[in-house]
Amino acid sequence: MMGGPMHRMMQNTEEEKAANNMAVVRRLVQYLKPYWLSVLGAFVMILVTAFSQAIGPLLIGRAIDEFITVGDRTGLARIMLMLFGVYSLNLVGMRYQIYWMNYAGQNVLADLRAKIMKHIQSLSLQYLEGSEAGDLMSRLVNDVDTINTFFSQGISQMIGATFSLLGIVIAMFSVDWRLALATLAIVPVMLLTTERFSKMARQAFRRTRTTIGDVSADLQEELGGVKVAQAFNRTEENVSRFTERNAANRDANVQANAVTSAFAPAMDVLSTIDTAIVAGFGGYLAINGALTVGVVVAFLQYVQNFFRPINTVAQLWTVAQSAFAAAERVFDLLDMEPEITDAPDAIEQPEITGKVVFDNVTFGYDSDLDVLRNVNLEVEPGKMIAIVGPTGAGKSTMISLLPRFYDVDEGTLSIDGYDVRQVTQNSLRTQMGMVLQEPFLFSGTVMDNIRYGSLTATDEEVIGAAKAANAHEFIMRMPEGYATDVGERGNLLSLGQRQLISIARAILANPRILILDEATASVDTRTESLIQEALDHLLKGRTSFVIAHRLSTIRNADLVLVMDHGEVVERGTHNDLLRQGGLYMDLYNRQFYVPQEETSKEVVGQNGH
Fold it and tell me: Are 565 and 393 in contact (CB under 8 A)?
């Protein structure tokens, strides 16, 4: 009784796989539509090639029966010239079908990569932060390359082989239906063999695409953390872990190649058997006068030509299966819906003055745990709000809601009276600036990285922003000044220099709301003073939210929020909070090792009493 449902379940699974294969093919074909003219040209050349391959054996058979057996040299020369023309036509057809499909394939490659890159940029931070960058890179590079190989080489040859096969079959039946049926007798066995190998190959290549993604992710992580690995003497452990993933990828590829490498020999065996059948049956008919020798020779040529496109498909089936597995991974990524999207009726955010209101805001990265609970805050334009608290209190999460990196679960976050969910992301984010604890610079020059804040800025404006950020002096001491290459992620600069450049970038952007996430937490005191001076310049006239690690940097904040476990537990100025003797004073004392009585004296002194 259990066999029936289980059989149906397995059958449904295979049907689903087949449907999925067709869906992948249909989606891949969609990318060829803009290049239909090249595809059409390739298709015409495929027909030319198929015709030439079908007509060649007929001419050879005719040469034997009509000219060689009777000694007609003139007729033989004429038919040889025709044969030369046919095979020349075949070469031209093959050349241009490959060229035009390759042209279309390279354009598809560029389009697909551009679409993936654009899509990745639209995905939510929660998804990107939970994904391995190396795996995303593998989909963007390795998987797309595999698809491109199929487009550029596989698809045209597979279509060409199919039409060649069709032309050969038609030619065989037009010459002699008996030998044609004898030739096709092996087809059922061939189809069963192909189906079996296809299923095995598809599963094997799914594993290869997954494991190469793991290798890419691990490699990127290990290269990025090599300094830490050396510092903790963990290089051998890292190499061992990478070796395991690399071995898994090797084993998956070996298994895939074991499956596909057995396919071509299997086709060769069937080809040999079919040749023997045609030779034996054709020889028997010729001996009995039912066929001419030329027809038998032509059919032997047809048998070879019959299996040549099949062998071509067999060899390219590896590419096809790998491409389908790669396409599944790419389409899985492209089908990932961005969590943060513009509302259908979203409007452009008017020029921001800077009034920000958190109205009973609650938020959690998943439904089971709230990171922020019932946050209420009203900020007037131009005010500086400092946010402090222990690690995991929700500080970074709170400021991430401002540019809509995430959306609130409950309550409302509004800027100048506009709910941030009702304005376009672009109009909102272009009026905001961020300076992070770990500044990110792009490969390129110092000038390029500062100009990233405003792509239309002149060189003079860039230099002015650098001067305001206290970055001009150290930039001018560099070998090529503003034309100096900063290296990948700015690794040729110190952390303090990268931070000053990022501040110059923010100054050039001229944001209406500024977010500072522990911008001075990881630099020395001298650099901190330069950064603090630059930040003072940057903060003037702007609404700002400052996550503070060093509490000495927020003495002049208009309002300090103290957060703990996702809630605002204290609020007030620096001095007010010290007087309250709560969590803020505890954080302050721990940071500066100030006894409680000394803290009280400091507050009294600052108040002038």
Answer: yes
Regarding whether 475 and 392 lie in a shared domain, the answer is no
Give the number of other Cβ atoms within 10 Å of residue 265's Cβ: 10
Question: Distance between alpha carbon 550 and the CA centroid of its chain, in Å?
Answer: 38
Pair 42, 177 in one domain: yes
- 408 and 550, same domain (yes or no): yes
Tell me the three state secondary structure of residue 177.
helix
d(CA 461, CA 578): 42
Categorise residue 452: left if φ over 0, alpha if ψ from -120 to 50, beta otherwise.
alpha
Whether residues 491 and 542 share a domain: the answer is: no
- Claim to verify: residue 180 and residue 58 sit in the same structural domain: yes
CB contact set of 432 (below 8 Å; sequence gap of 6+): 402, 403, 511, 512, 513, 514, 515
Whether 358 and 241 share a structural domain? no
In a domain? residue 605: no
Per residue, the 3-state secondary structure of 317-380, as one string, reads HHHHHHHHHHHHHHHHHHCCCCCCCCCCCCECCCCCCCCEEEEEEEECCECCECCEEEEEEEEC
Tokens representing 285? Answer: 């008919």
What is the DSSP code string of 544-586?
EEEE-SSGGGGTT-SEEEEEETTEEEEEE-HHHHHHHTSHHHH
Q: Is 228 exposed, middle or buried, given 0-12, 13-18 or 19+ CB atoms closer than 10 A?
A: exposed
**Per-residue pLDDT, 291:** 76
DSSP letter, residue 403: T
Which residue stretches of the chain have pLDDT < 50?
Answer: 1-14, 594, 598-609
**For residue 20, what pLDDT is reported?**
62
Domain boundary among 334, 366, 381: 334
Beta-bridged to residue 435, according to DSSP, are 516
426 CA to centre of own chain: 22
- We report the CATH number of the domain holding residue 120 as 1.20.1560.10
Per-residue pLDDT of 128-181, as tens digits, reads 665 666 667 777 777 877 787 777 666 767 777 777 778 778 877 877 888 888
567: domain CATH number is: 3.40.50.300
Say how many domains are in the chain: 3
- Report the predicted TM-score, pTM, of the whole model to 2 decimal places: 0.62
Say how far apart CA 245 and CA 77 lie, in whole Å. 63
Short-list 524, 519, 530, CA closest to 469: 530
Same domain membership, residue 522 and residue 505: no
Q: Which domain holds residue 75?
A: 18-334
Sequence-ordered strand ranges (E) for 497-550: 513-517, 543-547
- Rounded to whole angstroms, how far apart are CA atoms 520 and 122? 30
Q: In a 3-state reduction of DSSP, which class is residue 451?
A: helix
Residue 495 neighbours by CB under 8 Å, 6+ apart = 439, 522, 523
Kindly list the distances between the CA atom of residue 382 and the CA atoms of 174, 401, 531, 538, in Å, as whole numbers in the listed order.
88, 19, 20, 12
pLDDT in tens, 520-578: 655 666 666 777 777 777 777 889 898 877 776 788 889 999 999 889 999 998 888 88
